[in-house]
Fold this sequence. Notes:
CATH class of the domain at 2-82 and 155-248 in chain B: Alpha Beta
Shape of chain B: globular
Order of helices and strands of chain B: EEEHEEHEHHHHEHEHEEHHEE
Number of helices of chain A: 13
Subcellular location (chain A): Cell membrane
Structural class of chain B: alpha/beta
CATH superfamily of the domain at 2-82 and 155-248 in chain B: P-loop containing nucleotide triphosphate hydrolases
Strand content of chain B: 25-35%
Oligomer: heterodimer
Main location (chain A): membrane
Protein name (chain A): Iron complex transport system permease protein
Radius of gyration of chain B: 18 Å
Helix content of chain A: over 70%
InterPro entries (chain A): ABC_BtuC-like, ABC_transptr_permease_BtuC
CATH class of chain A: Mainly Alpha
Radius of gyration of chain A: 20 Å
Distance between the termini of chain A: 32 Å
Family (chain A): Belongs to the binding-protein-dependent transport system permease family. FecCD subfamily.
Largest sheet of chain B: 6 strands, mixed
Order of helices and strands of chain A: HHHHHHHHHHHHH
Strand content of chain A: under 5%
Largest interface: A-B, 21 and 30 residues
CATH topology of the domain at 2-82 and 155-248 in chain B: Rossmann fold
Shape of chain A: globular
Structural class of chain A: mainly alpha
Strand order of the largest sheet of chain B: 6-7-8-3-9-10
Distance between the termini of chain B: 38 Å
Amino acid sequence: MRKNSTKLIFLGVLAIISILFFAFYDIKGGFDYAFPRRMIRVAAMIVTGAAIAYATVVFQTITHNRLLTPSMIGLDSMYEVVQTVIYFFAGSMSIWVLNKYLNFSVAIIAMVLFALILYRFLFRADKYPVYLLLLIGMVLGTLLGSLVTFLQVMIDPVEYLSLQTRLFASFTSVKADLLYIAGTILFIAFIYGYIIMDTLDVMSLGRENAINLGVNYDRMVMNILILSSFLIATSTALVGPITFFGLIVANLAYQYFDTYKHSVLILGASLISIIALVGGQFLAEHIFELRTTLSVIINFIGGIYFIYLLLKESRSAG
Amino acid sequence: MIEIKGLTKRFGKKPVVEDVSVKIEPGTITSFIGPNGAGKSTLLSMVSSLLDADTGEVLLDQQDVRKWKSTEFAKCVSILKQANYINVRLTVRELVSFGRYPYSKGRLKAEDEKIVNQALDYMNLTQMQDQFLDELSGGQKQRAFIAMVIAQDTDYILLDEPLNNLDMKHSVQIMKILRRLVDELGKTVVIVLHDINFASVYSDRIVAMKNGRLVKNGPTHEIINSESLRDIYDMDIPIQEQNGCRICVYFNSHT
Lengths: 318, 255
């Protein structure tokens, strides 16, 4: 335990260093102009990073699978559907796009509704094994993806260009007002997480052991599925989808900490993701000079890491 | 007192447990025996509320187990299933400490630590308490899980084939420990057993099932005789007395 707290402090220091670098490195022109803008982006990265890390760790606890993330069950596709439908029917100059609040809330509501309908009403998550839900989620995700492609080929090419910028994660243009909403959602989610922290530890022992120890397992699974959908929806609506990111940070946290305690895992994964986002964005801006975007780097590294994990799993299974 | 009343469970259309009613006597070891697929494990899962029954009810102290608050229920009844695969890395001590969760919610007090120490001691695990579960043999792992259940300190302990993966020595050790739990601490143990001789030697009462139905229920000496066993297993099993224990010699019986 002592060793883990040292590791957490180390990650915390690293996170602060990368934030300081990002905030003060090569600040030219008006400090008063650049500094607040940089801080907004840092805040966006902290909120997104923590939300994705948190959502992925708890999601993997209830699915007992370290290769699945909530983004993979169709939430990212739902985001694309919402944006594409808006561009297709209303256009890029409509209030649905120009009013950031409206766009943000519509996206969150649609994604959470999607998850709710999937889990609560359509398939009664408490009656079916979670794997069935995941498979259905993936199938629905593919279906929605095809729908998106269908609408996109019919859209006006200029509109399509503008739509595309929305479908890639970006930290360069985050509105401060949205951050307050996203930050509040994250804050509430973390309070809930603090309350259920020990229950999560017990749930990692599996359904039967958890029920034996007095956990209302099926209801908790439902709550956590909804919680993780909320978190992913918030981060996606804020900056766009980063599919592989949760997978990387959660698995790095498992490897680095080697504990079952969710208090350590969630905090650790959040810190790792803050370091990766802020540090990565710093590299993208100052080393690669914006010739590439962070989400491309993340998905590139994440994809390789995913294959590595698959190979490792199959080797340990064989 | 646990009372099972008219319990039925179907998987699809096939009834796995059909209209079973049993009273579990407190302060005894009750063995569930019967051929494969008789519904013993399913019955045990329903008693421990891991599985919902289709019809019928299970009463714990006169109250339906589904109406019990899950934390309170976990302080009265514990269950250990036969397949215990855990995909997180835990030490033996950490696993056993989880047994205190219904009481301490993860924040162990001095008293909890004491009970964990006793449970480890009871199962002879004190020396390997800091080893990781995935480094242990099947038998050692099984003992660690039983220690967790002991740390849970419930009046009723339900075990689903706890002797799986265990060699003779450890099987005997575990049955002796269960006997001590009943005789010294007044616990009630319900156990699904495959080896009928362990049931014969160590249990007070036997509940025999076949094709989802209850076929025999009574004190051990009334069940362990060739006639009753033929009804249960469709085999002629000679029985020999050995130091007051009835041993079923089934190895070369006609089937």
